[in-house]
Write a structure and sequence with these properties.
heterodimer, A: about 280 residues, mainly alpha, ABC transporter involved in vitamin B12 uptake, BtuC, B: about 250 residues, alpha/beta, Rossmann fold, 6-stranded mixed sheet, globular
Chain lengths: ~280, ~250
């Protein structure tokens, strides 16, 4: 109890902690929403790939001093296109193409960073986040990306639903399924940029898929799944930031651990599909 | 059949996957207001043929004309009932959500379904006798019920032309009879239906015309013209047996 009181006191006292909390909540919302579609389309690996592939873009942007927003989107989408091109033009399967392309992009990023050692680009912070250094402008950027994603999902809800559930019918009635796919890749790059400071490149995929998967086990409707996923994303961020502040451990990793804990609770105790709940039902 | 305007004209259509030929050189013109069975052995290219007609797979050569229009204009009026095993039945959608998807092609890109759309969903669910199940998740239905839901979705689309991929695979007799009755109703209301089907035993009673396929067009026409032992033998590599005294045909090892 004392810890919680201390935490609240500190939030009102320290600007950096407020920023960290806000950033965490925003990331929870953005990742929660996007993640549902990533899971349902079976693209968890793709999410991991795009988030890693953003690295060279971010590094180049730092080096040449333009918005790392732009750099991230360019390398993210280029990687997605590369993956599609390889799997369509050879007998290489999707997951192999993904593995090849994203490790290549990631390695390029690491080489670029180490080339410019000592220029203020901290590899550790890009990879694992640095939530206590979130600035006002970072918050605004995350907020804008969040608004954009919410608008897109509400506006294109039916297109997303149909093309995810039944891509064949979607294509047959003339939906631009390929455009939807690559737009989602673009959104993935944006989400990664938005989450860069909070959880970092390596762990962002957890924020994408874990809250969504937790929600998936609890509901039979997409709209409810989206809502629950956001709730779990935000909860994970709040819990994670709290523990990281009180026990002085890495914030991004704490957030991800909180999300994982929520998942296992849902996995075991979901009223409809939980492992333990079902065993209990069978015994009755 | 020539006296009627054809609803679909297929001209010298060939499709291949990664260099392997699915079928080649298929040409036919289908008259409207009938149920057309697409039959042939496994791997004959049946599903690929209807997908190519709908423009879902790239053709190597040839052309398709639907309702005397290019495909992009006609696609709203084409309903597709997928093969059941191509659907993820763990997907978080309820029965009524699936049927509502049939209304999406009629809505503008920014529009949400309105009152009329929801009413139509209920009507279509009534037609397939699934109203009581409308709040169920689709994975919690039997195969036949799932198939009826997808048929209701096609009905909600108010299409002219229906493509059904193996609608009778792995479903119970009640559902099969109900679906067949609905398909005949649709035909009597002036619709045209293509049904991919692999079971020869009922082909004669179910369909008005037949397309017999084995990586090329073996025969196309009224069912009696197509349903002949030598033609079937050609399609099924001779694995067709007749029982003496009966007009019944059977496929062996198919």
């Amino acid at each position: 109890m004392e810890n919680i009181a201390f935490f609240f006191d500190s939030i009102f006292r320290y600007q950096y902690l407020q920023n960290a909390m806000l950033a965490g909540i925003l990331v929870g919302i953005i990742c929660g929403l996007t993640g549902c579609f990533i899971i349902l389309r079976g693209m968890a690996l793709m999410g991991d790939a795009i988030s890693h592939a953003v690295l060279p873009g971010v590094v180049i942007a730092y080096m040449w001093g333009f918005s790392f927003f732009l750099g991230a989107v360019v390398t993210g989408v280029l990687t997605a296109l590369g993956i599609g091109y390889i799997s369509q033009n050879s007998k290489i399967k999707d997951d192999t193409a993904i593995g090849i392309m994203f490790t290549a992009a990631f390695a390029l990023g690491v080489v670029l960073i180490t080339m410019r050692r000592g220029t203020g680009v901290d590899l550790w912070h890009i990879l694992f986040g640095n939530v206590l250094a979130v600035s006002r402008s970072d918050l605004w950027m995350t907020f804008s990306i969040g608004i954009l994603i919410v608008i897109c999902i509400v506006l294109f809800y039916k297109q997303l639903l149909l093309s995810t559930f039944d891509p064949t019918m979607a294509q047959a009635v003339g939906l631009p399924t390929r455009l939807i796919h690559y737009s989602l890749m673009l959104v993935l790059s944006l989400v990664t940029v938005a989450s860069l400071k909070t959880v970092g490149i390596v762990l962002v995929v957890a924020m994408l898929i874990t809250p969504g998967a937790t929600a998936y086990l609890l509901t039979y409707q997409l709209s409810t799944m989206l809502l629950l996923s956001v709730v779990f994303g935000v909860m994970s961020s709040v819990i994670g930031v709290y523990f990281s502040f009180i026990y002085d451990v890495a914030t991004g990793a704490s957030i991800v651990l909180a999300a994982s804990l929520l998942f296992f609770l849902s996995f075991l105790f979901s009223p409809k599909q939980g492992l333990i709940t079902q065993k209990f039902k069978h015994k009755k | 059949m020539l006296d009627q305007e054809a609803i679909i004209k297929v001209n010298n259509l060939s499709v291949s996957y990664n260099g392997k030929i699915a079928f080649s050189g298929i040409s036919f013109a289908a008259a409207p207001r009938q149920i057309i069975g697409v039959i042939g052995p496994n791997g004959a290219g049946k599903s690929t043929l209807i997908k190519a007609i709908m423009g879902l797979v790239q053709a190597d050569e040839g052309s398709v004309e639907i309702m005397s229009q290019a495909l992009t204009k006609a696609c709203k009026r084409i309903a597709y009932v997928p093969q059941r095993n191509s659907i993820d039945f763990d997907f978080p959608v309820l029965v009524e959500d699936v049927v509502l998807m049939g209304r999406f092609p009629h809505l503008k890109w920014w529009e949400f379904p309105g009152k009329r759309d929801y009413e139509l969903v209920m009507e279509c669910l009534e037609q397939v006798d699934m109203v009581d199940y409308r709040k169920r998740q689709i994975g919690h239905l039997s195969g036949g019920q799932q198939q009826r839901v997808f048929l209701a979705r096609a009905l909600a689309q108010e299409a002219e032309l229906f493509f059904l991929d193996e609608p009778f695979a792995g479903i119970d007799m009640t559902s099969e009879n109900m679906i067949m009755k609905l398909l005949k109703d649709l035909r009597d209301r002036g619709k045209t239906l293509f049904v991919v089907h692999h079971d020869l035993s009922k082909a004669e009673t179910y369909f008005d015309s037949l397309i017999l396929l084995k990586n090329k067009l073996i025969a196309y026409g009224k069912k009696d013209e197509v349903f002949q032992i030598d033609r079937l033998k050609e399609a099924y590599d001779g694995k067709v047996a007749t029982f003496p005294g009966k007009e019944q045909l059977m496929v062996v090892n198919s």
